């Protein structure tokens, strides 16, 4: 079962969106819980008390904290939570893009774009539910890390360092090439001799860098750039 939060200060529109979401998931035959919030502070307060969501659908133009700030704070507490922005004003699209949100939907196109966005989100959330990597950390003993938590792995000296969405870093005394072989090749890309990146968390390619969901930018080596772009296109085409 997936858990969704919807936040919009327009209570009538909020009710419409929630009904459309429930209908979409019924048609997909997928169990879902949908919690509606007309105040972003209420949503953030619930998250602070331990509420967890797989997907948050946020109106950008809300009373403070607005949608952009709310999204930043949701990501800080729930780094795996996907964000879909709703807005009536296209000028917010650039700011939303900079936050690496999952989708941006103009309210005027809700009927045409909401259901496809939800279907794409389900594909990503299902990918994130599966697979883990188990290894012996240098300082923390035996560790099991879900693939969805790994943003990238880099090498330094003889160690491989796992950088997680939670900002934790774990070190393993193993060559990066061997780590790559043990990870699923479908989920991870060798973008440089010293970096493996989780394809799930690459939001875009910009100025020769992979921009990750947590904001990290990692330079892609020039020889690898064409193959990385090709793999991303195939992956996004197959899963989104």
Question: What key phrases describe this protein's structure?
Answer:
globular, 240 residues, 5-stranded antiparallel sheet, Rossmann fold, alpha/beta, 5-stranded parallel sheet, 32% strand
Q: Secondary-structure map with pairings?
A:
Blueprint: E1 2-7, H1 11-28, E2 32-37, H2 40-48, E3 55-59, H3 67-77, E4 82-87, H4 93-98, E5 103-106, H5 110-129, E6 132-137, E7 141-146, E8 150-156, E9 159-164, E10 169-172, H6 176-182, E11 188-192, E12 195-198, E13 202-206, E14 209-212, E15 217-219, H7 225-239
Parallel strand pairs: 1-2, 1-3, 3-4, 4-5
Antiparallel strand pairs: 6-7, 8-9, 8-12, 9-10, 11-12, 13-14, 14-15
Helix pairs in contact: 1-5, 2-3
Overall, the morphology is globular
Q: What is the mean predicted local confidence, pLDDT?
A: 88
Q: How far is the first residue's CA from the last residue's CA? A: 20 Å
What string, H for helix and E for strand, traces the elements in order?
Answer: EHEHEHEHEHEEEEEHEEEEEH
Percent range of helical residues:
25-40%
Q: Tell me the fraction of residues in β-strands, as a range.
A: 25-35%
- Numbering strands along the chain, what is their spatial order in the largest sheet? 2-1-3-4-5
As for the CATH topology of the largest domain, it is Rossmann fold
Radius of gyration: 19 Å
Kindly state the number of beta strands: 15
Level-1 CATH class name of the largest domain: Alpha Beta
Indicate how many domains the architecture comprises.
2
């Amino acid at each position: 079962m997936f858990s969704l939060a919807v936040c919009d200060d327009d209570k009538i529109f909020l009710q419409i969106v929630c009904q459309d979401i429930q209908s979409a998931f019924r048609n997909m035959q997928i169990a879902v819980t949908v919690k509606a919030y007309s105040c972003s502070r209420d949503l953030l307060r619930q998250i602070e008390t331990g509420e967890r969501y797989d997907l948050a659908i946020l109106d950008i133009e809300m009373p403070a904290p607005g949608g952009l700030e709310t999204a930043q704070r949701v990501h800080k507490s729930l780094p795996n939570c996907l964000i879909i922005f709703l807005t009536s004003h296209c000028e917010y699209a650039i700011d939303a893009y900079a936050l690496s949100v999952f989708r941006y939907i103009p309210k005027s196109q809700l009927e045409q774009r909401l259901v496809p966005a939800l279907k794409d989100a389900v594909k990503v959330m299902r990918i994130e539910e599966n697979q883990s990597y188990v290894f012996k950390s240098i300082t923390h003993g035996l560790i099991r890390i879900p693939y969805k938590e790994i943003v990238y792995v880099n090498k330094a000296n003889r160690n491989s360092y796992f950088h997680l969405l939670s900002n934790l870093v774990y070190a393993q005394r193993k060559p990066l090439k061997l780590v790559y072989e043990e990870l699923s090749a479908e989920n991870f890309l060798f973008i440089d001799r010293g970096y493996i990146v989780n394809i799930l968390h690459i939001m875009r390619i910009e100025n020769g860098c992979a921009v990750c969901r947590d904001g990290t930018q990692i330079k892609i080596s020039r020889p690898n750039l064409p193959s990385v772009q090709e793999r991303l296109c195939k992956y996004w085409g197959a899963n989104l």
